[in-house]
Design goal:
about 500 residues, alpha/beta, Chitobiase, domain 2, TIM Barrel, 2 domains, about 40% helix, elongated
């Protein structure tokens, strides 16, 4: 039986089968959206409505929160202690009906996830994805029993969420003049009503949402809207191309912290799941080294250097979030550095290395960065990655520097996400077993409207194909941004010297 992810326990007898070409769901606690999702799929299989209920639901408090039990006999009995467990049971049942053409064998399945956090991150800062696209992402996640949507909402290239206290964030910060793909303008943002609609839809699929505002780096779009947020109050456009920007939020201005707190206040009204991500990656501190306000903050707080200044920044934001009742605060694992004063209660999205002091989610750059070409991360790499037993779970990433639409993101994601889907549910993914299920997986996701890559050569590229994939990807990283930063740094240093002379 080809079920993805593989259930913890399964037994079936293919010599004894029952006809389920007609079905009727018993009344249950599932959301209407979840019921409609199941019934719409059965219509695709040409299953008709039965006269009496033959899919029955039973509450069983001995079953784990997201676990379930399915018994297929003359009727289908589903046991669970929660609505989410019932929902995951139906995702399994959909696959069974698809594989066996509605003629199900006598079956018993007992199942529950290994990890509580089973995530998928989408970067909409680089490229805006419509509300309907986001809903389809959520559909696709639910199909595979993923339960956390990490919503990366802000970037150098775009601010994507309406903040009513700061209207210029979207009036100015959500638009850029052109992209690295073409000379066309690009923009878009989610109104607060859009966000409420997305959150409600996610919850109907038993998915929670963790918003991310990336600070203090990756903040060029916010700075374009409000130049006073950066050191030296520089007037800069929203970034157009990729590359690390040296103009970031100033860590020496109390007004910057107040800006962040005000943004958080509105975000928490929109996102009720009490997890939030505050970025913290690729914070190049060139401006802080010459900024009088930043240097004053370092001195007054007994900090050793600009690295500790970033930790001080993140701690202040964390303290505010805890006062507001946030359960967990995440950041990226600090660019491989070893933080000294960073609060131990801030968790990591762990891109690499080990973590022994704080909670973390595995977001491995070697397995789960699915925007990377297959030459970097093959299907085999994704499947063979082992999630640390101490992790909360794992998360796939789609960074959208080169992923301008959902069709492209699907091609990069499927089937490589199989490795994550199996690992976060079962604790591991057997590559050979994944290969055996691949044809079924393709057929099943196609039935659910998902694009994918099918070429075996592409899934696990070797030789020249792998070489040229990596070469092309690395070539894309060679932009004028690095050269521009050098000359711009010199310009800002001259400005800083002038400020220093005036203040003496």
């Amino acid at each position: 039986m080809k079920i993805i992810p593989q259930p913890q326990k399964i037994s079936f007898d293919e010599n004894v089968k029952f006809d389920f070409s007609k079905i009727l769901l018993q009344k249950n606690r599932l959301s209407q959206n979840a019921k409609d999702d199941f019934l719409n799929f059965t219509k695709k299989l040409e299953i008709k409505t039965a006269k009496e209920e033959n899919i029955l639901f039973f509450n069983d408090d001995t079953i784990a929160e997201e676990g379930y039990k399915i018994e297929v006999d003359r009727k289908i009995s589903i046991y669970a202690s929660s609505a989410s467990g019932e929902f995951y049971a139906l995702q399994t049942l959909k696959q069974m009906l698809f594989e066996y053409k509605n003629n199900l064998p006598k079956t018993t399945i007992e199942d529950c996830p290994k990890f509580a956090y089973r995530g998928f991150m989408l970067d909409v800062g680089r490229y805006f994805y419509s509300v309907s696209d986001i809903k389809k992402f959520l559909d696709d996640m639910a199909l595979q029993k993923l339960n956390w949507f990490h919503f990366h909402l802000t970037e150098d290239q775009g601010w994507r969420v309406e903040i009513k206290k700061y209207p210029l964030l979207t009036e100015i910060g959500s638009r850029r003049s052109h992209t690295n793909f073409n000379n066309k303008a690009h923009g878009g943002y989610y109104t607060q009503e859009d966000i409420k609609e997305i959150v409600e839809y996610a919850h109907s699929k038993y998915i929670k949402i963790m918003p991310e505002i990336d600070i203090p780096g990756h903040s060029r779009a916010a700075i374009a809207a409000y130049p006073e947020l950066c050191c030296f109050n520089r007037e800069l456009p929203v970034a157009t191309h990729w590359g690390v920007k040296h103009d970031i939020l100033c860590a020496g201005k109390e007004s910057v912290y107040q800006f962040v707190f005000n943004v958080i206040d509105e975000l928490l009204e929109l996102f009720p799941d009490r997890y939030i991500h505050i970025g913290g990656d690729e914070v190049f501190k060139h401006r802080w080294k010459i900024c009088p306000e930043c240097q004053k903050t370092i001195k007054e707080n007994g900090l050793k250097n600009e690295t500790e200044l970033q930790e001080y920044f993140m701690n202040k934001v964390y303290d505010y979030l805890k006062k507001k009742g946030v359960d967990k605060v995440f950041m990226w694992n600090f660019d491989g550095l070893n933080p000294t004063i960073l609060n131990k209660d801030i968790g990591f999205s762990l891109c690499g290395g080990e973590e022994k002091e704080r909670f973390f989610v595995d977001t491995s750059t070697k397995a789960y960065y699915l925007d990377f070409p297959y030459g970097y991360i093959s299907l085999k790499d994704s499947c063979e990655h082992k999630i640390d037993e101490n992790a909360m779970g794992g998360e796939a990433e789609i960074w959208c520097e080169y992923i301008p639409n959902k069709q492209k993101s699907d091609i990069m994601t499927y089937p490589r996400i199989l490795g994550l889907v199996e690992s976060v549910w079962n604790g591991n993914c057997d590559y050979n077993s994944a290969l055996e299920k691949l044809d079924f997986y393709y057929s099943y996701i196609e039935k659910n409207g998902i694009n994918h890559s099918v070429s075996d050569a592409k899934l696990n590229p070797k030789g020249l194909r792998k070489f040229f994939e990596i070469l092309l990807f690395e070539r894309r990283q060679l932009t004028w941004e690095g050269v521009h930063n050098i000359f711009d740094d010199l310009k800002v240093e001259r400005q800083a010297k002038k400020i220093s002379k005036v203040t003496k």
